[in-house]
């Protein structure tokens, strides 16, 4: 995106009232604090990327915007509605204005592509639909138009499970468009895709958002994609916002430095490097890492690996991304 385009979009969005406003949002699940005192304003037309490690609270934040979670404390306002206060009917009306795209696409595999897209028109509508015959001509033409927009018109009558991952995510985007949403939420929409498909899907989301003046809030863990396809990056760590900046002129190293500054140990830096898919932090841990991020004073010598054969356990799925392991050592 050109700097001029980004400036024009920011100027327009700066003048508008925020579409999304979070104030002091804390969310606890039993003893886990998923979000901590989050304040966030998102204005119409912004394309915001939520960036952070696994377990940092990205999905939880997105789910609050759609009323799928209620905050333990604080307020969540979306499109002028105080979301946690909405009853079921009002929530359905809000959800009809907010599209949601998920990591695993959530298509019905045995239905055709067109039928899957048509189900997007059911947001806010009650009652079952009986296959494709249950939808009127106008809706079918609209669905076909969206399939054309995402480049899959010729696949309309194919079963959804015969498509590639990238194609399925494009179908999910077409389905979300059936609602004519004002806000599009996307939870790790490219996490299951290869790099090329990821680029294509993110490019498509951005193009559609700009065409339609959509506001997008998208969680990602790849810094490169966040920088290429977002206007603004909101970085989360342990449920707190630790970074909130436009992508204008921002470099990957700067993003990593900010994450580095909030990391409390070398182990966490390594986890950040692995999860954010950068090798910039994975040089010689004794030199490059500490030098780049200036962490010596904070972490102390005893936390740094003293053996060059140490190995980082990249399996951060356990949401405690803090394990250093030497070969052969059991945890
Ligand atoms: N329904 C739930 N019950 C209990 N704990 C939960 C629930 N949902 C989320 N959590 C916890 O809240 C924290 C934040 O989770 P969340 O899914 O929002 O993180 P995330 O950044 O989206 O992670 P990922 O990138 O892996 O999807 C994690 O510690 C998670 O285990």
TrEMBL record:
<dbReference type="InterPro" id="IPR027417">
    <property type="entry name" value="P-loop_NTPase"/>
</dbReference>
<keyword id="KW-0813">Transport</keyword>
<keyword id="KW-1003">Cell membrane</keyword>
<feature type="region of interest" description="Disordered">
    <location>
        <begin position="297"/>
        <end position="331"/>
    </location>
</feature>
<feature type="compositionally biased region" description="Acidic residues">
    <location>
        <begin position="299"/>
        <end position="315"/>
    </location>
</feature>
<dbReference type="GO" id="GO:0005524">
    <property type="term" value="F:ATP binding"/>
</dbReference>
<dbReference type="InterPro" id="IPR017871">
    <property type="entry name" value="ABC_transporter-like_CS"/>
</dbReference>
<keyword id="KW-0067">ATP-binding</keyword>
<feature type="domain" description="ABC transporter">
    <location>
        <begin position="20"/>
        <end position="263"/>
    </location>
</feature>
<dbReference type="InterPro" id="IPR012693">
    <property type="entry name" value="ABC_transpr_PhnC"/>
</dbReference>
<dbReference type="InterPro" id="IPR050086">
    <property type="entry name" value="MetN_ABC_transporter-like"/>
</dbReference>
<dbReference type="InterPro" id="IPR003593">
    <property type="entry name" value="AAA+_ATPase"/>
</dbReference>
<dbReference type="InterPro" id="IPR003439">
    <property type="entry name" value="ABC_transporter-like_ATP-bd"/>
</dbReference>
<feature type="compositionally biased region" description="Basic and acidic residues">
    <location>
        <begin position="316"/>
        <end position="331"/>
    </location>
</feature>
<keyword id="KW-0547">Nucleotide-binding</keyword>
<dbReference type="Pfam" id="PF00005">
    <property type="entry name" value="ABC_tran"/>
</dbReference>
<keyword id="KW-0472">Membrane</keyword>
<keyword id="KW-1278">Translocase</keyword>
<protein>
    <submittedName>
        <fullName>Phosphonate transport system ATP-binding protein</fullName>
    </submittedName>
</protein>
């Amino acid at each position: 995106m050109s700097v001029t385009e980004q400036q024009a979009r920011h100027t327009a969005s700066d003048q508008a009232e925020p579409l999304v406003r979070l104030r002091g949002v804390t969310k606890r699940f039993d003893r886990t604090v998923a979000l901590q005192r989050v304040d966030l304003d998102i204005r119409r037309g912004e394309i915001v990327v939520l960036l952070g490690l696994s377990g940092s609270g990205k999905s939880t934040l997105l789910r609050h915007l759609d009323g799928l979670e209620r905050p333990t404390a604080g307020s969540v306002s979306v499109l002028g509605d105080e979301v946690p206060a909405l009853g079921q009917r009002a929530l359905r009306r809000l959800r009809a204005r907010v599209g949601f795209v998920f990591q695993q696409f959530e298509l019905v595999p045995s239905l055709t592509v067109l039928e899957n897209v048509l189900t997007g028109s059911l947001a806010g509508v009650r009652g079952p639909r009986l296959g494709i015959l249950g939808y009127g001509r106008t809706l079918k033409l609209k669905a076909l138009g969206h399939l054309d927009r995402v480049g899959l018109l010729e696949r309309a009558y194919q079963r959804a499970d015969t498509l590639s991952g990238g194609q399925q995510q494009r179908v999910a985007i077409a389905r979300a468009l059936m609602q004519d949403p004002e806000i599009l939420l996307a939870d790790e929409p490219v996490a299951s895709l290869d790099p090329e498909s990821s680029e294509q899907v993110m490019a498509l989301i951005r193009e559609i958002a700009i065409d339609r003046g959509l506001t997008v809030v998208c969680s990602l863990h790849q810094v490169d994609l966040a920088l290429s396809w977002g206007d603004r990056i909101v970085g989360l760590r342990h449920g707190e916002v630790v970074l909130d900046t436009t992508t204008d002129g921002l470099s990957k190293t700067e993003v990593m430095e900010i994450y580095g500054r909030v990391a409390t140990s070398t182990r966490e830096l390594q986890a950040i490097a692995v999860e954010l898919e950068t090798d910039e932090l994975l040089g010689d841990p004794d030199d490059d890492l500490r030098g780049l991020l200036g962490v010596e004073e904070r972490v102390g010598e005893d936390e740094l690996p003293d053996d060059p054969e140490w190995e980082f356990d990249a399996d951060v799925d356990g949401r405690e991304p803090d394990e250093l392991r030497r070969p052969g050592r059991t945890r």
